[in-house]
Each structure stands twice: as C-alpha cells, then as structure tokens.
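> forwarded from #structure-qc
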C-alpha cells in the first residue's frame, strides 16, 4: 500500500508564501521520471512527486526536510536544486520548485573547450559546497544532464543525501569522486557517439571513468590536455580522448 502513486492535485501552493498554483495538470509538461512529473511555471520548474511520504523516505527520495534544507543552505551554479516547497490544499508536502532551464537545439559540437572548462570548474565549486553542508550527490545518470545555451546543468537532486555529523563517511572525498564521475560520464556519452557500441569499447570506457573518478588530479590533467585550445570546438577534444582511450583495433 505504501507504494501507491499520488494523483496530481488540482491546486498546489508554496510553503513559503502560500501563493496558489491552480490547474497544475494544464501546465506545460517538461519531464517525468519514476518519482515525479515536472511542469514549467514561468522561469521555474515544478516537480510534483508521485510517491507517498513514507515511500519517498524509504527510497531516499526528496523529503520535505531535505527540500527545505537544500533551499536554505545550498547556493549552486550548475546543479539545479529545490528553491521552494509545494503543498497541496490539505497542507501535505507534494513537490518542489527549482530553476527552469530551456533545452537548446545547439549540438555540443558548437560549444568550445572553454565552455566545458567553465562548466567543470563551476561544478567543482558546487560539489565543494555540497561537502561543506554535508550533502552527498547520488544517482548521476544520462537523464541528469540538461544541455542549454550556456552548456550543461545537472538536475534531479532527489537522491542526494544529507550526512550526519556522526557519520564516518569522508564527504569531501566522496563528492570529489562524484564530481569527477559527472564530468567523465558526460565525456563518455559524447565519446560513445564516435565509436561502435560494443562490449570491448564499453569496458574500456568504464575502466577510464572509474580511474578518472578516483583520480584527484583528473580535472587538472584534463585542462592540461586541452592546453591553449580554449576556443577550439569541444568535439576536437572529445575525438582526441577517443583515440587515447580506444586506439584503433
């Protein structure tokens, strides 16, 4: 019974100021996942959550407490996180608000290496801020990336977790690995467009991603490889990495 989904309410309102949002289902639907549906609301996105409160907590999804904590304690540049909490007409937590980013028609080939470096550095700053607030990122996958006119953003912080002070987990180290994983996994998705999708290639890329995630110098070495070619198309660096990781067979 705990896994029943919740129907989209007719009316939601913001926890912070009681502003009402009527006819949620009539808003433009811009995304959906196993745990919720995302609607556009002006320059914001509203994620209406599917599961009941107990199930969200059991699955490590976005709880009311976590959404409020993220809103009040995290100021991030490249990770889209809750900046408002939604309640139904009975006052039950039903979802959250976050910045809306328009997907671009540009291909990643049109971006430069400088765009990539700017994204990577701002993402590194974000993961440092997560560590300072004892938040660990989780569940970064292909659906976590949004390509916009100013390159990339990470979305879907539902499975990010707040770690207690009593935990022995090294939050700084874990978030550095997650940051390097996010950057290398993005490069992987682009590199896979240039090679056959066979098991040998996938294994080589998987090894490279794991090695990169655990290498504290990964971003520094990546920037050194790019060198002075900041205005060069990112596609050139991606092609270079493919040849480096997967020599011709």
């Amino acid at each position: 019974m705990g896994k029943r989904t919740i129907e989209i309410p007719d009316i939601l309102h913001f926890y912070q100021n009681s502003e009402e949002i009527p006819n949620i289902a009539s808003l433009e639907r811009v995304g959906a996942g196993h745990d919720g549906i995302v609607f556009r609301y002006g320059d914001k996105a509203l994620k209406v959550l599917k599961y009941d409160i107990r199930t969200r907590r059991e699955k490590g999804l976005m709880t009311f407490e976590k959404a409020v904590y993220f809103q009040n304690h995290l100021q991030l540049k490249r990770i889209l996180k809750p900046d408002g909490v939604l309640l139904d007409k009975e006052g039950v937590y039903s979802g959250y608000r976050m910045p809306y980013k328009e997907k671009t028609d540009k291909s990643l080939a049109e971006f430069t290496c400088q765009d990539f470096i700017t994204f990577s550095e701002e993402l590194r700053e974000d993961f440092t801020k997560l560590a300072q607030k004892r938040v660990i990122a989780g569940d970064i996958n292909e659906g976590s990336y949004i390509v916009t006119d100013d390159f990339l953003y990470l979305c879907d912080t539902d499975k990010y977790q707040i770690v207690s002070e009593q935990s022995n987990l090294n939050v700084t180290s874990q978030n550095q690995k997650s940051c390097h994983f996010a950057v290398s996994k993005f490069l992987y998705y682009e590199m896979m467009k240039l090679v056959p999708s066979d098991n040998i290639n996938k294994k080589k890329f998987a090894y490279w991603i794991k090695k990169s995630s655990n290498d504290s110098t990964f971003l520094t070495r990546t920037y050194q490889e790019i060198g002075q070619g900041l205005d060069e198309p990112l596609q050139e660096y991606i092609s270079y990495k493919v040849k480096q990781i997967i020599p011709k067979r």
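QC bot note: Residues 66 and 162 are 7 Å apart (CA to CA). Helices lie at 53-58, 64-73, 113-132, 171-191, 199-213, 218-226, 234-245.
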